[in-house]
Fold this sequence. Notes:
By secondary structure, the protein is mainly alpha-helical. The protein folds into two domains: 5-355, Fumarase/aspartase (Central domain) (Fumarase C, Chain A, domain 2, Up-down Bundle), CATH 1.20.200; 362-426, Ribonucleotide Reductase Protein R1, domain 1 (Orthogonal Bundle). Helices cover 63% and strands 4% of the residues. It has helices at 12-15, 18-21, 26-46, 52-62, 73-79, 83-94, 97-100, 109-145, 165-190, 209-220, 234-260, 286-308, 317-346, 352-360, 368-375, 381-398, 402-410, 425-437, and strands at residues 150-155, 158-164, 268-270, 348-350. The strands form two sheets. Strands 1-2 form a two-stranded antiparallel ribbon. A hairpin with a 2-residue loop joins strand 1 (150-155) and strand 2. The two termini are 45 Å apart.
Amino acid sequence: xxxxxxxxxxxxxxxxxxxxxxxxxxxxxxxxxxxxxxxxxxxxxxxxxxxxxxxxxxxxxxxxxxxxxxxxxxxxxxxxxxxxxxxxxxxxxxxxxxxxxxxxxxxxxxxxxxxxxxxxxxxxxxxxxxxxxxxxxxxxxxxxxxxxxxxxxxxxxxxxxxxxxxxxxxxxxxxxxxxxxxxxxxxxxxxxxxxxxxxxxxxxxxxxxxxxxxxxxxxxxxxxxxxxxxxxxxxxxxxxxxxxxxxxxxxxxxxxxxxxxxxxxxxxxxxxxxxxxxxxxxxxxxxxxxxxxxxxxxxxxxxxxxxxxxxxxxxxxxxxxxxxxxxxxxxxxxxxxxxxxxxxxxxxxxxxxxxxxxxxxxxxxxxxxxxxxxxxxxxxxxxxxxxxxxxxxxxxxxxxxxxxxxxxxxxxxxxxxxxxxxxxxxxxxxxxxxxxxxx
Length: 439
């Protein structure tokens, strides 16, 4: 097993996602940091903090100079951050010492790295939102089409009461709607620039420090946090909580599909399901299994990132390193979960006949609750519940249908107790579909 399955040539189609993975490569990180350095110089030149001609030269060079990430590795291993080596390589690549001296003026490594990270997270959030919208559209179509497709609702893995497949689909989608709503609020807090200098005070930039930070935010299309967040990692923990929560909701979808494709239930089929190396009859629900595994993996990564927020004083290398080790993996985990859910839902088909057969099975025990409330019209509810419970036990013992036993014992007193009433299930399915399609 490779150390990083998402990046593996063998396992990437199972656990990786190419569009997000591109944002978390060495070259993507270097390019993002170079953009920050160039934008910083341009803003400082405009405010007269560094010579304007040097600022123009640095900004242009930040888009032209090519830096090999592997050439930064040795110094990064010593310094603990890649920025000193990056700045040295950038200055050398400019081949203009008079201008190069103004690169990275007054900034610190974390300013460049955090802002570069935020630039890449902005792209990732855009990718994920588009995938989430596609999943919600699929779920809305499925919920509406099967709003009145009856099926057994199960609790504790046992038959409970009648419901509809559309309502189950809506239960998968409603949490995703809430995750989508949270994303809009989260963006404003997470997508902010980092510029605070050595110890978070912008001391080297003097009185113009706040103006430089605001200008850098504007130049990069980010928000101005109005201060340092070097050791204030609540933005990252909020993001990680959102990602882990979304993975958990997608994992719940996977758990339900695993249950519905179980050989004893088989109420849905998935086109193109996985094959076995030895059993020709198998159609393994691989996608659903991946969603569950990714949901569990995201929970662990999210917990680690919550712990990584415990920075000591103005900045903490150990806590920051923990974030580096964990956040990209959580991003790739979410990206794969979204892609897998989209693919699986596109191949999922409910089997109406199997769902109806499950409703008709077990001698009508599924209607026990409805019978209780029908009978409660003519006697106290506790007595009605006890009577129906006794009939259920008798039916299990003798094999007789609950309807026959109830009719023989109570006759017209249980009128309506065996109707095909699905309660609010159809309305919930349609309401969810309408919410998805509301601008």
